[in-house]
Each structure stands twice: as C-alpha cells, then as structure tokens.
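note to self — DONT lose this again. spent like an hour looking for the file last time. sequence + predicted structure for the chain T wanted, 178 res
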Amino acid sequence: MIALASLCILVRVGIQVSRKKAPESQDYLIYVAFVFFLAMSISYLKIVPHLDRMYEVGVGALARWPTMEDDAIRYNRILFWTPIWFWTALWLAKLSLLALCKKLMEGLPKRYTRFRQAVLIFCWIVSCPAPWLQKSLLNGATVSGRLLGSLHHIMSQIRRQTQTRRMFRHAQHRRPAS
C-alpha cells in the first residue's frame, strides 16, 4: 500500500510540475494525508515483528530479554497513536475531495453548490463532538457515545499496558521451551 500511495503522489506531483501549476488546497490536504498515512504504515511495519517476539515470550517459546518491558511500553505508545494517524489521514483525504468538488462545481447552478455545502455540513456533524448535537445521523448513536468510545479506546490501551507488564512478570518465572 505504501508503494501504491507513493506512486500516486509522485504522479500527482509530476503532473503539477510538468504543467507548471501551483498547488491548490486539495493538493496540500492530500499531501498532509499522505504524510499521516506514511507515519501510520511505517509505525506498524516497525513494531509488528517485535510484537510477534513478545507473543512468543508470552507463550513460553522464547526467553525474556532485558529491555522487554520498556520495549512493550514503547510499542504500546506507538499503537496508541496509529489509529489517530489513520483517521486524520482519512479525514484529510475526504476534505481534499470536497475541495476538489468545490473547484469542479465553480460556474454550475446554485443547487450544486448547495449540495456540496450539505455534504460538508454532514461531514462536520458526523465528525464534530459538539455537545448541542446530541444525536448523530448515523444509526442514532449519540455524540457522547462516540466520545465514550474514544475514552474506551484510551482505557483499553492502558489496560493492554498493564496486562503486558503482568505477562512479563509471569514470564520471568517460566523457563523457555527447549
């Protein structure tokens, strides 16, 4: 996926350079989305092999290494940020498409502009955790419920760190399989 996304961005930059065209708002938004996507992907690629090793320690297949607990805490911190980077990249890509739609709709009748504004307002309502918007348009879920979902995500990360520490303490008493 990194290669495909990088190829698309390079083609986009190449076309802009060859046409000597200045970048517009949708271009900047998609470039920033690409940076967030790269950060997320590289983070996952960096920690997945280490997480597999930690799992093997947990099941007793490998011996514990001296810095394992510190490594686990560092990897949990990275795992906390990756969903945030993913959603940021996703929303920036969506805003980039909305900016492109705005550019394409210039000169069209007013009803198309109103339609674009309605889509923009819908996206804002769905993503904005405003207290006066008690009902979301999706499945009747409350905005406060989505905030509780975010809080649940943070608490699950903390719980995962605690369980990891317990697993390491338990693994210290085990002997690796011969």
